[in-house]
Design brief:
The structure is a homodimer of 207-residue chains.
Chain A: H1 6-24, H2 31-38, H3 42-48, H4 52-77, H5 82-95, H6 99-102, H7 107-115, H8 120-147, H9 156-177, H10 180-196, H11 200-206
The structure holds a DNA duplex (30 and 30 nucleotides).
Chain lengths: 207, 207
DNA sequence: ATATAAACAGACCAGTTGGTATGTCAAATA
DNA sequence: TATTTGACATACCAACTGGTCTGTTTATAT
């Protein structure tokens, strides 16, 4: 904002928009509020984006999708034990959240619940994020089966979808109930379920 | 709508509003659309409700809460085997949904994700629904432990929360991915998890 | 140095939206 | 039958909202 830096301006718009969307949803987000947050004007905003919708699309593609890649896809691709890696990621994410953050939930889940039925562009983009996410888990589980850490009878593709769904469900219910206790209770069940996916031999080391 | 019937009119407003909200969310729901659906006018609508928000509150209290009572709390309170009852309810609900219905998700989850962070009135009402829901599951699991059908080492309160969260997560992910296959895959995992809660002796009869 | 195009600023606008004020009609009540 | 009240109908409005249009400033290429 000091000197002219279009990339930085564009990113500032997306960051401000994401914060608003995270709390109020895409429909509840107001262009005017982005201007207030960034100190920019309408001229600047509509120079970088054609309309409100394109801001939402860019957030999914450039921020949320990227986050999943960095926090999940990357670590899982380097992992020799997907179960432990998933538990680690969850605990790390959990540690970084205040009670206030919990109330806002996962922006990916928020957006998909709000927008996927009413805008196909949003839905396709969010579905793609979910696909990358589940694929990364499924592939890691598959590799784990080959190395013997994961039970041979688990079906990676199915379990991956279920794990992702449960995770989103947990975050969503905790968000509504505004309860850290509830979040930790559910996470505990999730952890137990994850450990069940390990081969009997390797459970000793894990717990 | 034929003759004057205030209760029927009020209910017609709520039903129409719920359909709109189910698809577009509460913020996306337009009062004007309710009028079009019901054939009523603003005068009628604002005679029965003080404002838009009160329509949303009434829907949670009178329709969604009631639905949970009928579909979950009732059956579970009569159940001798909560695991089988839950599986039955899920299969029944699943059978009644078309692909189009799946895209709209669960209205309770939709509303809680959208409204709980921005309106405390909504959040409290939805939390209460979740509480009744999880309590019913937890109590049924407890009773199952006493009769011996449920494993003694499961913690009813924790598992109940996790089950509810997973269920909502599954519906939510399937909604975004618009995939019946994915829904059934995840439901399959959920079913397996539920059956694990049964005592080893009674598994034979269940499967 | 100057032309050119990108990166903004700011006023303005048309459509939308929740909500209100006033009037009318039917049914219960006396 | 007269009257009062609840159940609507209709016109209207003020505020909001996404988006546009025109103008100005800054960087960059020639």
């Amino acid at each position: 904002m000091v000197s002219r830096n279009p990339n930085q301006t564009r990113r500032a718009i997306l960051d401000a928009a994401l914060e608003e969307i995270h709390l109020r949803g895409f429909q509840g987000m107001r262009v005017e509020h982005i201007l207030q947050r960034t100190g920019l004007t309408k001229g600047a905003l509509y120079h970088h984006f054609t309309n409100k919708m394109s801001i939402g699309y860019a957030i999914v593609d450039e921020i949320l999708g990227q986050d999943v890649m960095e926090r999940w896809v990357g670590p899982l691709s380097d992992s020799s034990n997907p179960v432990l890696t998933i538990i680690e990621i969850c605990e790390k994410e959990r540690a970084g959240r205040t009670a206030e953050e919990i109330e806002k939930g996962c922006p990916i889940n928020n957006l998909s619940q709000e927008m996927s039925p009413i805008d196909e562009g949003f839905r396709e983009r969010l579905e793609q994020v979910y696909r990358q996410w589940t694929s990364a888990i499924a592939e890691a589980l598959s590799r784990g089966q080959k190395t013997g850490v994961i039970r041979a009878d688990v079906e990676p593709a199915k379990i991956a979808k279920f794990l992702l769904a449960s995770l989103q469900g947990i975050i969503g219910v905790a968000k509504c109930c505004k309860s850290e206790q509830m979040l930790d209770d559910m996470a505990d069940c999730m952890r137990s379920y994850l450990l069940q996916l390990l081969n009997a031999d390797s459970v000793q080391r894990a717990v």
